[in-house]
Amino acid sequence: HSLTPGDEDLSCLGVALKSSALALVSDYRNWLTALCPESGILAATLDWLESHAPPQGRTSLIHRDFRTGNFLVDQGSLTSVLDWDFAGWGDPYEDIGWFCATCWRAGRDDLEAGGLATRDGFYRAYEAAGGQTIDPGAVAYWEIMAHTRWAIIARQQGVRAAQGDQPRHELLEAAARVPGLERDLAAMIAAG
Prior knowledge:
The chain is mostly helical. It has a single domain (11-191), classed as Alpha-Beta Complex (Aminoglycoside 3'-phosphotransferase, Chain: A, domain 2). Helix content is 49%, strand content 8%. It contains seven helices and four strands. The protein has helices at 20-35, 41-51, 92-100, 119-128, 136-162, 168-175, 178-191; strands at residues 60-62, 71-74, 77-81, 88-90. The strands form two sheets. It has a two-stranded antiparallel ribbon with strand order 1-4. β2 and β3 (77-81) form a beta hairpin. The two termini are 27 Å apart. The model has no long low-confidence stretch (mean pLDDT 91).
């Protein structure tokens, strides 16, 4: 998260938005409306995200899909980050929230940072590597955003499977996660 607008010739990424949170809420609302206008918990979650949107913090180049499966490690060291097709300017907390979201822990809820490390250990390592000091409240907001995004994408994948897109079994598996994601979102919103 060290590259910021103007640091390099990264004009291909477009202009940094004033509030990446509000822009994402608007995008996700449009995606959801195209899928199913009556969406219950997801619509309520988008309302919550909009009303609780943080002010724009630091803007940097973010990955937007940093999770297990999108990076390579050799002998305990990160060697490569893969799958940059969602990258752009945004709040670094978006990546941190995505990485810490329950949906990417592969059943290892005791290791809240991607199913690989404790949250506290990850935060300390991130800060020591030159990242900003982590605000747990900001991460909590972006974890809700991450679950919302993944739930909408999973719904989209269900539509694709119904249309005969391939690999159908993988698309259906993603769609089957929607009720659990919505249940998690309801609990997160209720908690705060």
